Amino acid sequence: MPLISPSRFDGPLVGRDAESARLEQAVSMLRLGHGAVVEVVGDPGMGKTSLLTALAAMVAGTGTRLARGNAVRGGAAPGQIFASAWEELLGPGTLDREASLDPQSARALAAGWAVGAGGAVLLDDVQWCDPGSVEIAVGLVRNPVPGPFLLALAHRPRQTSPALLAALDDGVRIGTVIRVEAVPLAADALCELAGRWAGGAIAKAAGTGAGTAADEACDHRLGEAAGGSPRNLRILLAGGWDPVLWPFQAGGDPGGLLREAAALTSELDLVSADAGVVLRGAAILGDPFRPEDVTEVCGLPTDRVLAALGELSRADLVRARGDGEFVFRDPVLGHVVHEHASFSEQSAGHRRALDLLVKRDAAATALARHAENLLGTASETAAPILARAAAEVVARDPAAAAHWSRLALEYIPHGGSARPELEILLCRALIAVGRLDEARTLVHRVLGHVADLPWQLALRAYGAAADVERLLCRYAEAEAIAATALSLLPDPGPGKTLPLEAVMMVYEYALVQTLRGDHVQAREMIRAAVDTTARPVHPTEVAIRCLELCQDSYLGDVETAVLAMRQCANAVDALADPQAGQSPEMFATLGIAELYLERFDDASRHLKRGLKVASGGTQLHVVLHLLLALASVDVFSGRLETSTEWAVQAERLATAIGSEEGVGLAKAVQASAMIWTRGQRDVREILALAESAIADVESHRSWWALSALGLAAQVQLLGGDPEGALRTMLERADGQDVAAAQPALEPSLKGVMAMAALRCGDLAAARRWTEDAESAAARLALPGQTASAMRARAALHLADGRPDLAVDLFERAADRFERAGAPIQRAWTQAMGAAAADATQGHDAALVWLDAASVAADALGALWVQEDTVRARAELEIGRGDGDGDADGDTDGGSGVGGDAPQAHGDGPLGMLSEREREIAALAAEGMRSREIAQRLFLSPRTVEAHLGRVYRRLGVSSRGELPRIIGNQGEKGSKDGV
Question: Strand pairing partners for 179?
């Protein structure tokens, strides 16, 4: 990677607002004629010099005289740093070079500057000051010069003179020293710096491509690698930092790394010869390292190694950990030291380190770093070690596994099973890090000679191929590959279990069927082929049990699912993260099952753990499943803000890996959260988002597509488009009934359809779908799903003019939503039921319902429910005749009579209706839908439906289809007059 241009370091400080404010405080004191001592303190590379530069710019803006100095390490004349600072401003020869600058003369110079406009002296690298400069600095800190004189000292506290440290600490305590700490920068500040220095986001600079969720993980890893240090960030960027190589290597461009680290390497060259050898030996070993291991690698006697470590500790190049081990002061320094060593020194050192670890029977992952550096010189030894290391870490660090297996493949010969086995492992690692096209090319190359492989290895190759096709949403190809593999399975014989390779293949095939929506077939395959009680602690067995549980819960077999859920949860909880990481989809399937079974807290817990296990930019397809499931759980359980956050991350990741269905479901979840939180003002935007989600999934027949359509339909219902909601449920999924295709959610989805039909005036359809919802709810016996069916029946009773039957059902539904952990649905139900409470329990009781809904909505951030309660209150007032306006503030033709009060209009049926009711009834008789009437009369669709409900009751009809017959010519006249 090319060296970063120094011009990019210009510009305002990033992430240093607090530090800049402290510097401004000192400059303000200078403007007011007061002196100040500023201490800028921090570890190497944290930006102390940048802060001094910013301070210099602030001082220059005041017109004050300014001098800057820098300490020179070793052999400086007494008072060197102060002398160089004054000479820089006043010119050479100003100070007597024969006489040292002592504290008295330095103070006299400073006092002279404090006369008039004042002055400022800014000194950097004070930790390297000569004793004379330290004495001057201590005197000026303990006895500040009166008047407008500013002294700024930047230093590394671990290397600074104790006398100066004590003076500065005392000054901070008594208020004469302003301390500015250059703390590690936050991740977002590092991202901004990388954009400034490397022309783009960190991930782009590191060569990973688009700004996706994976890139955010890459950004985070680079921030951690830099340790918050701007200098380390520049070094890593210049060295071509790659998340796959870190922490084993700093990057792919050692030359760029060393050029950017010139200041560090010059510091390294100042240590003694023994210290240099020990430092390079420690870099070969890597953090942490022990003195006895350094002795083995360097070949120096123990006493000389210990003496060198003491020197390096004093120079703050290495630090003791307190357990007999040492580490470099930061990992970047260790990599710079390693690259600063000669090739021969590296090769010999890694050979000795490898022999040392082999004698200790260390894991292959501990050997891999040394084996990697021996490729090309000892490849026969190194390549098998890298292959073993890749197999050890593929579950928890697939990026490292991909790197090591790719290196090993360059040196493992063709023939035998070692090479195809490693190629399959590399394919699995590539799948986990989201490089699906590359993985597909590789595994199909392996399948080209699958006939030459043992059946166990052939099954693994087929399994990887089916996995990658599934993740590319090529379900037909995935199913065909899996079916071919299953035909190779040997018959285990009666009473015997399948070998683990076969179980993994069944699992892969069942996953394909599940995502395609064929849950019945997937469940039957698992039950027929696998004894899910065998090997209960193996991750694959636990994963397949979780998948079977997910299918049971989705298909509505609640009794079986609840029992299995407890067993699966216990099994998953008992697995350590590295074990669970071998089949991380178990967290997604378990969490989704718990979602269907209304165990929202358990679902959230397992999904979040799964996200942790599959985090770090790896296992991207699993991360997408987990994000979508978390977003859905939080929508159901009323955590709307976090739901939106999960869904936005999911959409970004789905876009990056090319999952159109994932994008659609993420949009549907976002729209579901937004319709509750943003209210009527943004309803067009929200409906457009829901329609976009539908467009993404409607050509697919899968679990994700059905889930997205069900969520989008509820958004359309709430957004005032009941006709659109019904089209989505009945037409957009290739003609299938979305509710019937999802048994676990059928009551709530049929409830949505019933309420949409009510709003469209189709009472017959509403009754039919309400009965379906009740039948499905009885089968499931889940509180939330039962509540959805009850609410649909209550709404139907209210439309039929039977509030006495409706009120109890609304109340029971609200209670069950509360038990289910669905607070938004509870609040919405209370708002809906207020009209029934008003009719049967009185106005005060209805207000209690609305107050409860409003309080809950406020706590949840559900603006839509708050607005709905306001509309409901207005409609109740209309019904009591207490005002002239309806929920939208319109009037009834200036009659001065409440919107629900009937007017005399002859002997016809319209005499039973109010002016507004006559107007709405006439338009409905003409065939206009509720939304069209609302737009014509500037009302809300809910207000129109409320008026129509009263029209039906007073006229004794059950639907708007009967209105033309009853209203007749009077209706036509009323329509003309009213409009």
Answer: 39
Residue 973, pLDDT > 70, answer: no
List CB contacts of 414: < 8 A, sequence separation 6 or more.
none
CB 730 within 8 A of CB 737: yes
Q: Which residues of 941-958 are buried (b: 16+ CB within 10 A; e: fewer)?
A: bbbbbbbbbbbbbbbebe
Tokens of 563: 């029992």
Q: Which two tokens stand for residue 26?
A: 């000192």
The one-letter amino acid at 516: R
Residue at 912: amino acid letter: M
3-class DSSP assignment, residue 748: helix
> 894: left (phi > 0), else alpha (psi -120 to 50), else beta?
left
Q: Return the structure tokens found at 361.
A: 């029977």
Q: What is the DSSP string of 836-858?
A: HHHHHH-HHHHHHHHHHHHHHHH
**Residue range 885-940, pLDDT digits in tens:** 443 434 333 322 233 434 444 445 566 677 778 888 888 888 888 878 877 776 66
Dihedrals φ, ψ of 927, to 5°?
Answer: 105, 5
User: If you ran DSSP here, which 8-state letter would residue 489 be given?
Assistant: P
Measure the CA–CA gap between 955 and 950, rounded to whole angstroms: 8
Short-list 92, 6, 91, CA closest to 53: 6
The tokens of 937 are what?
A: 């009369």
pLDDT digits (tens, 9 = 90+) for 603-649: 999 999 998 887 644 467 788 899 999 999 999 999 999 999 999 99
Q: Give tens-digit pLDDT for 49-90.
A: 999 999 999 998 888 888 888 888 776 667 777 877 766 555
Residue where the block lists tokens 């209105």: 963
Structure tokens at 918: 């006559």
The answer to whether the CB of 89 falls within 8 A of the CB of 121 is no
DSSP state of 223: H
Give the β-pairing of 326-328 and 318-320: antiparallel
Residue with tokens 């160089």: 84
| Identity of residue 132 | G
DSSP three-state, residue 709: helix
pLDDT digits (tens, 9 = 90+) for 585-596: 899 999 999 999
Give the Cα separation of 83 and 517 in Å (integer). 80
